[in-house]
Write a structure and sequence with these properties.
The protein has 217 residues and is an alpha/beta fold. It folds into two domains: 112 residues, Rossmann fold; 98 residues, Rossmann fold (3-Layer(aba) Sandwich), CATH 3.40.50. Helices cover 46% and strands 14% of the residues. The strands form two sheets. The protein has a four-stranded parallel β-sheet with strand order 5-4-6-7. It has a three-stranded parallel β-sheet with strand order 2-1-3, sandwiched between helices. Helix 1 crosses helix 10 and helix 8 packs antiparallel against helix 9. The longest helix is centred in the first third of the chain and has 14 residues. The radius of gyration is 17 Å and the shape is globular. The termini are close together.
Length: 217
């Protein structure tokens, strides 16, 4: 199988969750049947929230571009990044190497039903228009919460390590208040999807499928 390089450290727990879901996504009879991964777990990537929402932080783009080059040098044959918000820097990543970039947004949109989609994502995803062109192309209308404060507060809780019962209850409440098919477009929130009692699409699962399909191609 082909090797995929993971730009990690952009939510360390989400990187671990991605790897766990990849293990489950492969029908393996032996260790050798699993997908070869090279993970660049870099906690030094500047805060996307501070940069994109607060407008005060350091630019993550150059760091992510260097990570892409590091992964290419290590032998990666494609790149993937388990963070919707960080896809605001996809142009810098794609310009850094000739490797194919497995775009989380494109593979997610391909899995969504047409029509109204309720967004559970960082406000930075809305502010940067990360999904806008993809949604327009296929006729999807995103529905954002009137108050994004509770969503951002929950993301911050998960980043601080809180994935307990109260965090799951908060996730369930956000989903129940949403109108339309729910899209979980934040990999911190992917850690809480067990709480959901209604149909949803998780962008992390969509990226898992893209990585598996590329590795087997």
């Amino acid at each position: 199988m082909r090797t995929v390089g993971i730009l990690g450290g952009i939510g360390p727990e989400a990187t671990v969750l991605l790897m766990k879901r990849l293990l489950k996504a492969v029908e393996a009879r032996d260790d050798a049947d699993h997908i070869p991964l090279i993970v660049h777990q870099n906690p030094g990537v500047p805060s996307r929230i501070r940069r994109l929402i607060e407008g005060t932080g350091e630019d993550p783009g150059p760091v992510l571009a260097q990570m892409a080059r590091d992964l290419q040098a290590a032998g990666a044959e494609a790149l993937a990044m388990p963070c919707n918000t960080a896809h605001a820097y996809a142009p810098e990543i794609m310009a850094a190497t000739p490797l194919p970039f497995l775009d989380m947004r494109a593979t997610t949109v391909a899995a969504l039903p047409k029509g109204r989609v309720a967004m559970l994502a960082s406000p930075a995803v809305r502010l940067t228009g990360a999904f806008d062109a993809h949604f327009t192309e296929v006729g999807i209308t995103p529905a954002w919460p009137d108050d994004e404060g509770p969503v951002l507060a929950l993301i911050r809780r998960v980043k601080a390590g809180d994935t307990g019962a109260d965090a799951h209850a908060a996730m369930a409440a956000l989903a129940e208040a949403a109108e339309g098919h729910v899209l979980v477009a934040c990999t911190e929130l992917s850690l809480l999807t067990r709480a959901l009692q209604r149909p949803f699409t998780d962008s992390l699962d969509c990226l898992v499928e893209a990585i598996r399909d590329f590795a087997k191609s």
